[in-house]
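We store chain and fold; thus.
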Amino acid sequence: MESMISFFKKKVQQFPDNTLLWEKDSRIYQSTSYQEAYVMVQQLAVGLKEFGIVGEERLALLSEGRKLWLISELAVLSNRAVTVPLSIKLEPDNDLIFRLKHSESSYVLVSQNQLHKIRMVKKDLPALKKTIVFTPDIPLEDDEVDIQEIMDWGKRRMLDDTELMSA
């Protein structure tokens, strides 16, 4: 059976310049091609690896549907880690805590709209190492990191190691 990652790579080769998705940015929709998405996936995957996220590590994903949701899902799977998708309708007090504890997620990828839920419950999640926030330019707490920072680490690492560029 073909993995989601190998299927995605095949589609990138077939349709590099075709639009993979559209996302509304302010008032206009911006397109992202298969090739652009693939580069973002690689940068995030390498950045996550540099961050120590590989293998059986579990990352919860709490976000509305958006480009970074897809990029994150594919990057995590590229590192053979596990994504734990969570509904944005979960209430922080019981359901969210239960799912995060039960899944043994040590990281959470989260949108700005959902970040308050993680901040409310993180004291009850001793296994939670870091919260990776999708939205740039907002005040972050000590245990939070901007996803763009991780992607920038990946980009720099890929530029330093040309073998990673062809992976």
